[in-house]
Amino acid sequence: MPTQLPAARSTLRVEASAALGAIPVLYVAGMPRSGSTLLDLMLGQLPGHCDVGELFYMWQAGPLRDQRCGCGEVFSACPFWTEVGRVAFGGWDRVDVREVLQLQASVDKTVYLPLILAARLFPSYQRRLDQYMALLTTLYAAIRQVSGATVVIDSTKRPSLAYILRRTPGVDLALVHIVRDPRGVVTSWSREVALPEGAGPRSHLRRQSPVLISRRWLTVNAMIGMLERLGVPRVLLRYEDLVRRPSDELRRVARLHGDALWADDLDFLSTEGLHLSSSHTVAGGRVRFQTGVVPLRTDERWRTEMPARQRRFVEVVTWPLRRRYGYR
Q1: Which of 42, 225, 245, 316 has CA atoms 20 to 30 A from the CA of 126?
Q2: What helix, strand, coil percent values describe the chain, rounded to 5?
């Protein structure tokens, strides 16, 4: 029988984690199709860093659906995630996953940002949030222990989770805010993207309208930018700069948790591209299944593929933030 996750038990786990020191979590935030999975994989090659992909979706992708891990194994056969489940909960079969998903849905949504910021004014929400934060700390602590890494990289991207992690006991949060030219993001979302077999519940990622994506590009990036004003350390990184100058950009990110990189720490980068070893990313873009050499080149097909009328619309709608990020 799966066990419940009562607040009392979870709180004890958080206090134990806090006693060992806060867990450095490097959270990759931004709009989907902005290069976050590529950045996640790059950061995971750095000494002392463990990339796990989009951890928010782990409960669905892993224990519930048994999808493929970035290492190629299905979740239940992956030795890394099997050990994480054992360390965190005594095994994944000891957790009521549907209860966890209900808890997650009741606290971790963009619409709940006002509640996250003022949770003390809403006791019922605060109780659920406390239980959810305890669950997160338990999970990050287990990942850190099993991997032997110092920094856990979570590329979930969602603003709501970043706001929750900001106030989670036992978590030392830093943000990598990755942005991409909105014209490139809109063009990417205008195409149907095939997914590898076993990587998700669908075989393709569906197209989305330019109006929806332009609005989301504005709101998501604005919400993430506000976290710096709330005291969360943040590096703003452009996808185009990451691809053209990966060493320089990764050095900037590493300094968020006080790490200085040596030249040989970046040996996985060469003129050929990014040299990837297998990772245990549990959810994310299809590039997470690649190993070997991944060429680094900017995808600017929007310059030739984007219809003129659509391009003007996107440029007008996204103008304030687009100019702030240096996109002309």
Answers
A1: 225
A2: 55, 15, 30
Residue located via tokens 């950009």: 249
Beta strand segments in the chain, E? 23-30, 49-51, 151-157, 171-179, 193-194, 204-205, 234-238, 269-270, 273-276, 292-294
Prediction pTM value: 0.89
Which pLDDT does position 258 carry in this prediction? 78
Is residue 99 a contact partner of residue 93, using CB atoms and an 8 Å limit? no
How far the first Cα of the chain sits from its last, in Å, is 58
Number of H helices, E strands in the chain: 15, 10
Q: How far apart are CA 105 and CA 128, in angstroms?
A: 10
Q: Give the span between the Cα atoms of 183 and 300, in whole angstroms.
A: 9
CATH topology of domain 7-324: Rossmann fold (3.40.50)
Q: Which residues are bridge partners to 27 per DSSP?
A: 154, 175
The residue-averaged pLDDT of 131-153 equals 96
> Which tokens is 266 given?
């970046």
Hey, what are 225's tokens? 């930018």
**For 86-141, how does the pLDDT look when each residue is reduced to its tens digit (9 = 90+)?**
999 999 999 999 999 999 999 999 999 999 999 999 999 999 999 999 999 999 99
What is the per-residue pLDDT for 32? Answer: 92
Domain positions in the chain are 7-324
Report the sign of the C-alpha dihedral through residues 75, 17, 231, 104, in that order.
positive
Burial of 80 (0-12, 13-18, 19+ CB in 10 A): buried
Name the average pLDDT for the chain. Answer: 89
Q: State the Cα–Cα distance between residues 280 and 210, nearest whole angstrom.
A: 33
Length of the chain: 328
User: Using CA atoms, how far apart are residues 276 and 268, in angstroms rounded to an integer?
Assistant: 7
